[in-house]
Write a structure and sequence with these properties.
Length: 463
Amino acid sequence: MKIEKLAEANLERLIRKSYGDEAALESRVAEILGRVRLEGDEALFRLTMELDGVDLRQSGLKVREEEIEEACASVSGEFLTALRVAKRNITRFHERQKRVSWFEPEEDGSILGQLIRPLRRVGIYVPGGTAAYPSSVLMNALPALVAGVQEVVMVSPPRPDGSLLPEVLAAAGEAGVREIYKVGGAQAVAALAYGTATVAPVEKITGPGNIYVTLAKKQVFGQVDIDMLAGPSEILILADESARERELAADLLSQAEHDRLASAILVSPDRTLLEETVREVERQLSTLPRAEIARCAWENHGAAIWVRDLAEGMDLANRIAPEHFELVVKDPQQWLGRVRNAGAVFLGRFSPEPVGDYLAGPNHILPTGGTARFYSPLNVDTFTKKTSVIQYSEQALARDAEHIVRLARTEGLEAHARAVEVRGHEAGKGEPEEGRGDARGTSGYQRMRREKPRSGEEGPAHG
């Protein structure tokens, strides 16, 4: 790999990934969604056999409780300990994100506020394929449970024998997820969105997956909510002369091994560091179990970019808006305030990206493909909804009526205006005259306030 200057770097190649003929993929996904919507469970059985070679009629679509118990018993004690430490940290971090409903009384007797309520039922997608992700079970499920979601439903692609990886089921057991289905891909998203005889529909779908999962989430949005459109994993490291090439190479490969489309980018004003790290990547690739995947990602979507100084490197990072952003510099906190766009930031050489993937506590389901410019990581708010509360007093309505009426009539919505003006009659202050007020611009509500009828008299006739 050559060392590129910033002006020569093809940023579009680094940010946008090509999946081939995306129109054809969209069409195929739409076909799968349509089949599941029409045929329900039968489509899930057929599609899983066609696409995964797994007969769900034999293995069962839904995971049985005893399968979860057997999985928990079969994994090592060391794994369970690590899982429980991760669970504790993830739960503790997300509990700090909880927000409560609030109500603010005004001096005029009005009350404004916001109800914050958890979603009732959500679906979490846990990827399978070339790797298994028990950590993603925790990252999806625990924020939902902290938010107060009553029903968390998990889907994940089955292995060839029709089972799920024991570590994935053990993670679900530890997280308290008991409704699990052995189905993946676009068909799993369809089942969650539309429901089948076996799978009840959900209100939101979260979690990353392959391109079929991502496009399916995109197409069912509106029927249900989704968290984000996640793509291949990314890491961008901004490093200075204090960094160590062995550590940088390991961090770059930690993301390159995820997927052939993953991005691993090193940016530095130290050209010698760039050259030594590129050589170190080659050395580490020779012993990496997933070397074929990592090499493909590194050669096609990796980069080593030379910049004039750290300030230029920071500007580049904000333009790329990486999923994972490592600041491996002498004083990383000095630069934190200049970070505008990143899914997660890792400060210093003792905060490698896998710390965030597994144990630190912040969520590892992060925006990709430059969407950190406007998306946030998965969090407790992802699983809540907010309802505005408005209780106006008679005094407040009298004060604001003129402005409301004027805005309504400016928009040509006469019924809106009258819905405010008629309250004068309901409050015993007379009825508004029809129309827009007199020639001097006095509103009907103003006249009501000025012409309050005496006791025993009726107000002005309603035209």
